[in-house]
């Protein structure tokens, strides 16, 4: 379990006990400590550049979650015990400057319920000091033999105390490490420990934008685009929204297509019914036209636009057969009645015409 310290300001720092320079006053429980930028130690109200010796110590002590607060009693107790231990270990080294606690990690014993703490820290000495890693480790281990509080010590890397953001950077080991951005990230001018921005390829021209998720910059496709082969391409037809997850347009297209097909079917059916009805009416009209060519006297008729006018009356000529189509129609239509008349009457020829005489 790694602990990130939460600094809470207090009235104890209002008097500026760390001076007016780059040192930062951190309020503890009824106490305070002064922290300088990486590579500097605080002494005599000022920050001084020094030599850095990162390390890790083990100590037997359980703690609660309140140790996350640097002004809690638990943290203050650990801070005072650790700084007192190193002050005693380097009591003969006049170039010793300061011990700075960087982080605390809980270690669970797999064989018992006991817990121990691992503290990452750095000891700083004057820049012109002659101490080495071997000298520092020897003095600390000798002091740990007589301590009931510190159980072990080992050297650590510079990256362990420089605290690059491991989510977005890769730490390049050196006394002054460099936090190199991982792929797709870039640094801002005000932060050298993390890469809090997307790279230059994440731009509107590439249909992308940079978003923050849990404090980490994430390059995403613009609305109505989706990622394919590391490129943001337009959504397929019917899809929209973020990552093209909205398919409401596709549903509308499907519904519109179905409705269009139904309407088209109705139109085709209406045209078919209308054409069939018209054909039926034409057949009925044709059946009402007299079939002159099928009549009994059709052989003597001629098709004319205008009927021929007869100058001689048929009544004055016995045996006369009219060629007038209108007269033929009248004569044809009266054939059905001739039988009834013939049954009761007979015709006689007289000088002035015909006369009908009833039979007795």
TrEMBL record:
One of its GO terms (cellular component) is plasma membrane. The keyword Cytoplasm does not apply. Residues 327-342 have a biased composition (Basic and acidic residues). Keywords: Cell membrane, Disulfide bond, EGF-like domain, Glycoprotein, Membrane, Repeat, Signal, Transmembrane, Transmembrane helix. It is found in: Cell membrane. Gene3D superfamilies: Laminin. It comes from the Eukaryota. The chain crosses the membrane at residues 252-275. SMART domains: EGF. Residues 311-360 are annotated as: Disordered. The keyword ATP-binding does not apply. Signal peptide: none annotated. Residues 9-48 form the EGF-like domain. Residues 311-326 have a biased composition (Polar residues). PANTHER family: HEART DEVELOPMENT PROTEIN WITH EGF-LIKE DOMAINS 1, MUCIN-13. This is EGF-like domain-containing protein.
């Amino acid at each position: 379990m790694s602990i990130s310290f939460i600094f809470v300001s207090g009235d104890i720092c209002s008097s500026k006990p760390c001076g007016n320079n780059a040192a930062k006053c951190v309020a503890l429980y009824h106490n305070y400590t002064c922290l300088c930028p990486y590579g500097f130690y605080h002494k005599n109200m000022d920050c001084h550049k020094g030599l850095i010796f990162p390390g890790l110590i083990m100590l037997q002590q359980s703690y609660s979650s309140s140790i996350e607060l640097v002004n809690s009693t638990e943290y203050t107790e650990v801070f005072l015990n650790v700084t007192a231990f190193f002050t005693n270990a380097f009591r003969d080294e006049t170039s010793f400057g300061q011990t700075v606690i960087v982080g605390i990690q809980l270690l669970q014993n797999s064989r018992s319920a006991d817990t121990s703490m691992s503290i990452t820290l750095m000891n700083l000495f004057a820049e012109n000091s002659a101490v080495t890693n071997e000298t520092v480790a020897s003095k600390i281990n000798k002091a740990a033999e007589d301590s009931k509080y510190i159980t072990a010590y080992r050297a650590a890397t510079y990256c362990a105390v420089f605290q690059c953001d491991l989510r977005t950077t890769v730490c390049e080991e050196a006394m002054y490490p460099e936090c190199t951005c991982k792929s797709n990230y870039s640094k801002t001018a005000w932060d050298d420990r993390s890469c809090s921005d997307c790279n230059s390829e994440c731009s509107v021209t590439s249909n992308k934008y940079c978003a923050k998720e849990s404090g980490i910059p994430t390059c995403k496709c613009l609305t109505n685009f989706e990622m394919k082969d590391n490129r943001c391409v337009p959504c397929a037809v019917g899809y929209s929204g973020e990552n093209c997850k909205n398919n409401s347009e596709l549903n509308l297209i499907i519904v519109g297509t179905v409705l269009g097909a139904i309407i088209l079917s109705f139109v085709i059916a209406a045209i078919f019914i209308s054409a069939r009805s018209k054909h039926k009416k034409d057949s009925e009209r044709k059946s009402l036209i007299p079939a002159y060519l099928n009549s009994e006297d059709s052989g003597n008729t001629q098709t004319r636009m205008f009927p021929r006018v007869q100058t001689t009356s048929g009544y004055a000529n016995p045996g006369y057969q009219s060629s007038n189509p209108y007269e033929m129609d009248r004569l044809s239509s009266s054939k059905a009645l001739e039988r009834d008349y013939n049954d009761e009457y007979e015709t006689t020829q007289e000088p002035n015409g015909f006369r009908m005489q009833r039979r007795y």
